Amino acid sequence: MKRSGKRRPIALALRTLTILTGLLLAASSIVPAAAQTSDLVSKTAFRVCADPANMPLSDKSEAGFENKIAELMATELKLPLEYTWFPMATGFVRMTLQANNCDVVIGYAQGDEMVLNTNHYYTSGYVLIVPMDGPLAEVTTIGDPALKDKRIGVVAGSPPATHLALHGLLPKAKGYDLMVDRRYEDPAGDMLADLEAGTIDAAILWGPIGGPLVKQSHPGLKVVPLLSEPLPPKMFYRITMGVRQGEKVWERKLDSLIRRNQAKINTILTDAGVPLLNDMGTAPLEAGK
Questions:
Q1: Cα→Cα distances 273→44, 66, 114, 267, Å
Q2: pLDDT tens profile 184-208
Q3: Cβ 83 vs Cβ 208: under 8 Å
Q4: How far is residue 232's CA from residue 179's CA, in Å, rounded to a whole number?
Q5: Nearest 5 degrees, angle CA 51-CA 234-CA 226?
Q6: Within 10 A of 115 (CB to CB), how many other CB atoms are there?
Q7: What are phi and psi of 101, to 5 degrees?
Q8: pLDDT, tens digit, for every residue of 136-188?
Q9: How is residue 239 annotated by DSSP?
Q10: Cα–Cα dist 140/144, whole Å
């Protein structure tokens, strides 16, 4: 499932150390694990693990905003960009990053133990999407009484579904699948189509999906970041790049690239329509931050 393109960039395989006998010999010959696992990172290409049909984030035509960030990173590294394509579903990390088919996942939520996270390069959250001129246009929280008895679209098993349950809104909600092969199913697209058709009254989506989709194709809809949900689970996440566990040298190199190119990354995200939040997920990110 590997394809090379005009500039392209992630995976885990632990190496076995040969422990030499003798205290002095051991002290002089054992190499730190971080340095060893870094040897797995390609020196000839920026190898990225990505979903081939996960717009607006990524796809094989390289039109997604994560594709554009990958291209920026490859340019800064002066390396060609190379992709390993695999659906972002069960087995994604195992079949890509851990199999050493690629060296970085461009978008990965902070804190997942399957990867080593870089510093986060943006924070975003879930959004409420409603008709721009409809009766729910001023709603900003899931607990707003205006949502009572409304049919709300939500991805099953996602944090907003728990919030709907806490507010007694789940019985009338319409659920959409969470883990799908986007080459064949499109829950977010279906949800927005249902909203425009009046099948549901409002939709709740992950901001980096819902924001760009509305900006691209749904001018009659309004995107409202959900910033004031006091109850857990949290409704915002810091997004990092994911690398193989133990590859601290590679992680630090990417951290440096992110820091030096943060303004360019923010421009890519903003142009795509991603709602950017401050690090605590409590307010929109101020321009220039």
A1: 33, 13, 28, 10
A2: 999 999 999 999 999 999 999 999 9
A3: no
A4: 22
A5: 85
A6: 26
A7: -85, -15
A8: 999 999 999 999 999 999 999 999 999 999 999 999 999 999 888 889 999 99
A9: E
A10: 7
